[in-house]
């Protein structure tokens, strides 16, 4: 079966999260190693079984490798180094991260700092875990809403331990079509075409499959349950079954039909889209 899973809480421990995922019918997992909204060190322990592989850690929301505040930059680098070590310990493939925001200064102004920070993180984390950049929706100066920005970072860092994660909601809200009937319907602006054009398909580690509460190219980042958003099931099905993407693990980060987070109903819908 294709790896299909969800982001779940580690409340009760890593093993409990894995058990909940299997009960939902999933076989790959994403977790936070600790609270995503504080700098506390990871408390996660244990090792994942082969039943929930691949697995990923999602980095803290506080991280900003483009920050002009030395303390925040240092904390961001240290947190990512630590999470990469934890990923290795628990059997996760890597750490998925939003690189942060240039806060109005522009991508070019922070490019060197960001790439040098990534090089430091990779050089000083004694592990094979991947650092996985996630595309953003373009809100508030967030980095990597443009696929070309991700390409520039890959070219500058040139490391086999650097990968990326493509989120459908973020791409749609950044102005990329997800499926032929979504967005502006322009084949030039199709997310898969742009990924192929920039030669980044082979660097994808996983796909986040989320619908969008907001309209195309809104610049917002608000996930919707599958089929309840502006992207729609037809477009999501076309996307997850695209020949260049259908080998990749799929992870939902949906709000849940009962508003308690990714649930079995969303996961069942996602599985039904896969052919």
From TrEMBL:
<feature type="binding site">
    <location>
        <position position="208"/>
    </location>
    <ligand>
        <name>Zn(2+) 2</name>
    </ligand>
</feature>
<feature type="binding site">
    <location>
        <position position="134"/>
    </location>
    <ligand>
        <name>Zn(2+) 1</name>
    </ligand>
</feature>
<comment type="function">
    <text>Endonuclease IV plays a role in DNA repair. It cleaves phosphodiester bonds at apurinic or apyrimidinic (AP) sites, generating a 3'-hydroxyl group and a 5'-terminal sugar phosphate.</text>
</comment>
<dbReference type="GO" id="GO:0008833">
    <property type="term" value="F:deoxyribonuclease IV (phage-T4-induced) activity"/>
</dbReference>
<dbReference type="InterPro" id="IPR001719">
    <property type="entry name" value="AP_endonuc_2"/>
</dbReference>
<feature type="binding site">
    <location>
        <position position="98"/>
    </location>
    <ligand>
        <name>Zn(2+) 1</name>
    </ligand>
</feature>
<feature type="binding site">
    <location>
        <position position="253"/>
    </location>
    <ligand>
        <name>Zn(2+) 2</name>
    </ligand>
</feature>
<dbReference type="InterPro" id="IPR018246">
    <property type="entry name" value="AP_endonuc_F2_Zn_BS"/>
</dbReference>
<keyword id="KW-0479">Metal-binding</keyword>
<keyword id="KW-0378">Hydrolase</keyword>
<dbReference type="GO" id="GO:0006284">
    <property type="term" value="P:base-excision repair"/>
</dbReference>
<feature type="binding site">
    <location>
        <position position="223"/>
    </location>
    <ligand>
        <name>Zn(2+) 3</name>
    </ligand>
</feature>
<feature type="binding site">
    <location>
        <position position="221"/>
    </location>
    <ligand>
        <name>Zn(2+) 3</name>
    </ligand>
</feature>
<dbReference type="InterPro" id="IPR013022">
    <property type="entry name" value="Xyl_isomerase-like_TIM-brl"/>
</dbReference>
<dbReference type="GO" id="GO:0008081">
    <property type="term" value="F:phosphoric diester hydrolase activity"/>
</dbReference>
<dbReference type="Pfam" id="PF01261">
    <property type="entry name" value="AP_endonuc_2"/>
</dbReference>
<feature type="domain" description="Xylose isomerase-like TIM barrel">
    <location>
        <begin position="57"/>
        <end position="268"/>
    </location>
</feature>
<comment type="similarity">
    <text>Belongs to the AP endonuclease 2 family.</text>
</comment>
<dbReference type="GO" id="GO:0003906">
    <property type="term" value="F:DNA-(apurinic or apyrimidinic site) endonuclease activity"/>
</dbReference>
<dbReference type="InterPro" id="IPR036237">
    <property type="entry name" value="Xyl_isomerase-like_sf"/>
</dbReference>
<protein>
    <recommendedName>
        <fullName>Probable endonuclease 4</fullName>
        <ecNumber>3.1.21.2</ecNumber>
    </recommendedName>
</protein>
<keyword id="KW-0234">DNA repair</keyword>
<keyword id="KW-0255">Endonuclease</keyword>
<feature type="binding site">
    <location>
        <position position="58"/>
    </location>
    <ligand>
        <name>Zn(2+) 1</name>
    </ligand>
</feature>
<dbReference type="GO" id="GO:0003677">
    <property type="term" value="F:DNA binding"/>
</dbReference>
<feature type="binding site">
    <location>
        <position position="170"/>
    </location>
    <ligand>
        <name>Zn(2+) 3</name>
    </ligand>
</feature>
<dbReference type="GO" id="GO:0008270">
    <property type="term" value="F:zinc ion binding"/>
</dbReference>
<feature type="binding site">
    <location>
        <position position="134"/>
    </location>
    <ligand>
        <name>Zn(2+) 2</name>
    </ligand>
</feature>
<keyword id="KW-0540">Nuclease</keyword>
<feature type="binding site">
    <location>
        <position position="167"/>
    </location>
    <ligand>
        <name>Zn(2+) 2</name>
    </ligand>
</feature>
<keyword id="KW-0862">Zinc</keyword>
<keyword id="KW-0227">DNA damage</keyword>
